[in-house]
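tool_call: predict_structure(chain=1)
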Amino acid sequence: MIKKLIIFMVSILLCGIIISACNSPQSQEQEKNVPEELNFEGVNTAAEAMELFAGAAGKTTDQAVRDKLFRDLLSWMEDKGSGSVSLYMNIRRAVGNIGEEYNGHDSLDIVKKLNTIYLNNPENIPDKKFRDKMKKMAENGLVFATAEGDVWPVVNYHYLKERFGELLSQQLNDYLELKGNGLNNFNEGAPMISWDALSGRIVNMENFLHKYPELKEAGEIKERYHYLLSVYLRGGIHMPGKIREELRQSHRHFLEQYKNTDTCPVVKKFHSLLKKNNFTRTQEVNDFDINAHLKTYLQK
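tool_result:
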């Protein structure tokens, strides 16, 4: 009994110390010194920008303030971060830089290799100049994206989530996850991933919008949701002719796997319309108003 009492008293004392530390003049002074927004004057690289955020966010426990500062960082990185490393090149050159001979490589396969193997292990790259640039990409939170046979550095959202996730709200963590999964979706208006994989991302966006309808980033995600849904239903951007069988199968798969989603009724109506038109992109099919058939929270 005495032992339990001692443990209880020690716990009370420790709580008092922690609370006192949080309310100490030094702690309060730190909170006062937290900037309302990040000042990027003199910042030249994404690595410097991330350090600026980390320093400011570490001075406050206010979640709203941390999120605001991170949005400042993200805005800067999306605007200027890729300039930290000048590395725009075509696939043929990218293949040569990693010491392989080009033989019609698929651009998405090469980018996956660059991002998963060489970005984390640049010492395996034979070309010193390219190896040094890959190191800089990793240091600056960048990753490769691809389209139309070219590759270039963009923000690595998964890296930002891994590095700063504990400082951010769950909403922003989920947002970074969505953004990270959205890279390398399209090449000249056609998906670079399978139709089923694309449908899964559409559903993830629906879930995000249902969960966070008032979030600042919801508008951006909604725009992306509409774009991806249109591509998924129609089989691409301004694609003539018939809908291919693999997409028809994916539509049927969607109706089974995601039957409880709010996107499912739209897919069902559109698929029925396609069937009526012999799966041909007729004027009636092209005129289908996706937005009008969505629930309010998903509408533009």
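agent: The mean pLDDT is 87. Proceeding to next step.
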